[in-house]
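Input structure tokens:
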């Protein structure tokens, strides 16, 4: 069994955003590629901001992406007693101290440190707790070294060095006895046996401060890989204005999970000229050495292009169910057994023209439209002049067609236009109007074939009858 153990450790204060999804994917791929373990820890120590809805969104997002984790989910809030015990252990060993500074003293020291260009310093670092007033609240601070350097040997960023003089005595336990993020992360990663910490490079300075805790406890430091953040198309830090949505939003927009995995892994990672790759292929080649130092830029056109590839490769039955679900629950279109069968039969044709499941539904709308189809406004323009008499003659030709398939119908329509001595548009545009109401649809031979002979003729009859009534 491999010694590789990775983790994804989101805070449940919102949805699983696309940057977090990529971090989870990199951790999952590295663990699976090395026959290791991928663990999930929910860092819910901020009880005021953590919500059950956010926890559910994270779990649902990972499940949709297909990123399965090993073992039970670890909730950081449930480990608080263990965190406190480690802080007390550091107190007893001299690696930490009690700080009795009042809020006013802290404010004054912060201002002095800012003015003098140095880090925050507590006078209690070198004083005895016995000097403190009775019942004075205190925090527990790490007694960090004030000289020398802390080096981060990072598998993406290389060696990064921090002067210890710029690293303050971080708080391990707050005055109410609750552990801080810095302490909890170190203890949890140690207890979970994490071998590789793969996370955003905004945590790089945290790694230096956390290393001081590892050193104080005499624990092995994990391997680090701090990956660049994702930027928007304009090169600026990704935000909601760029479309930094949760992964469930991309699911609802009609993206396939395998396409999102392929797209996300290419955001900041490369292997030769590999562009489109299945998850199975990625597992054979994924390595931390392929992660770039420069931030990746979100490209929605590229995302849609990759999704279109996977839609074309997807199983028709699976696509049909996704499309029908979109029609029922998002578009709120009424369906029955007949229209559902039309949609299922149309997948092989429709999927070659769509980039998302939502587009599949839109292109299949003509299959489920209720009759009679409204013919007004722009839709009615091709029906003026001699269009309706020609449509009546076409209806007769179609009624006599015995070879009702896309190829045969396409040839019939072309021959009809030639017999009428008009360009194909004079035939196709009126027919498309009455069959689809102007909605997106494939070639007319395929439209007729997918609707079936009875429905095609019925829609033409609706238009002809409406014309006669006016």
């Amino acid at each position: 069994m491999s010694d590789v153990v990775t983790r994804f450790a989101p805070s449940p204060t919102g949805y699983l955003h696309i940057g977090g999804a990529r971090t989870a994917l990199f951790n999952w791929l590295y663990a699976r590629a090395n026959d290791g373990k991928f663990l999930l820890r929910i860092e819910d120590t901020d009880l005021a901001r953590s919500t059950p809805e956010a926890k559910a969104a994270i779990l649902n997002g990972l499940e949709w992406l297909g990123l399965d984790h090993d073992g039970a989910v670890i909730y950081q809030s449930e480990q608080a007693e263990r965190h406190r015990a480690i802080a007390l252990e550091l107190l007893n060993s001299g690696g930490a101290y009690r700080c009795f500074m009042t809020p006013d003293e802290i404010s004054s020291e912060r201002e002095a440190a800012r003015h003098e260009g140095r880090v925050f310093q507590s006078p209690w670092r070198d004083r005895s707790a016995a000097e403190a007033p009775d019942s004075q609240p205190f925090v527990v601070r790490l007694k960090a070294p004030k000289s020398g350097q802390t080096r981060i040997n990072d598998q993406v960023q290389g060696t990064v060095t921090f002067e210890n003089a710029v690293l303050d005595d971080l708080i391990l336990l707050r005055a109410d006895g609750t552990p801080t993020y810095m302490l909890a992360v170190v203890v949890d990663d140690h207890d979970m046996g994490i071998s590789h910490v793969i996370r955003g490079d905004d945590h790089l300075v945290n790694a230096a401060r956390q290393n001081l805790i590892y050193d104080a406890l005499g624990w092995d430091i994990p391997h680090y890989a701090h990956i660049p953040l994702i930027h928007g198309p304009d090169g600026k830090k990704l935000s909601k204005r760029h479309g930094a949505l949760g992964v469930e939003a991309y699911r609802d927009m009609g993206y396939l999970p395998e396409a999102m995995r392929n797209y996300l892994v290419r955001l900041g990672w490369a292997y030769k000229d590999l562009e489109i790759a299945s998850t199975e292929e990625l597992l054979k080649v994924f390595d931390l050495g392929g992660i770039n130092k420069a931030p990746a830029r979100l490209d929605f056109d590229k995302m849609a292009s990759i999704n279109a590839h996977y839609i074309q490769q997807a199983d028709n039955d699976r696509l049909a169910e996704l499309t029908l679900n979109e029609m029922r629950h998002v578009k709120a279109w009424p369906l029955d057994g007949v229209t559902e069968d039309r949609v299922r039969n149309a997948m092989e044709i429709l999927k070659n023209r769509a980039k998302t499941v939502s587009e599949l539904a839109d292109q299949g709308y003509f299959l489920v439209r209720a009759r009679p189809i409204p013919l007004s406004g722009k839709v009615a323009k091709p029906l003026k002049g001699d269009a309706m008499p020609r449509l009546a003659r076409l209806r007769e030709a179609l009624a006599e067609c015995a070879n009702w398939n896309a190829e045969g119908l396409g040839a019939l329509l072309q021959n009809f236009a030639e017999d009428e001595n008009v360009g194909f548009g004079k035939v196709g545009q009126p027919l498309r109007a009455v069959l689809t109401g102007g909605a997106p649809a494939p070639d007319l031979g395929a439209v007729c074939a997918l609707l079936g002979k009875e429905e095609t003729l019925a829609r033409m009859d609706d238009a002809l009858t409406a014309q006669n009534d006016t």
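The mean pLDDT is 93. The CA atoms of residues 347 and 470 lie 38 Å apart.
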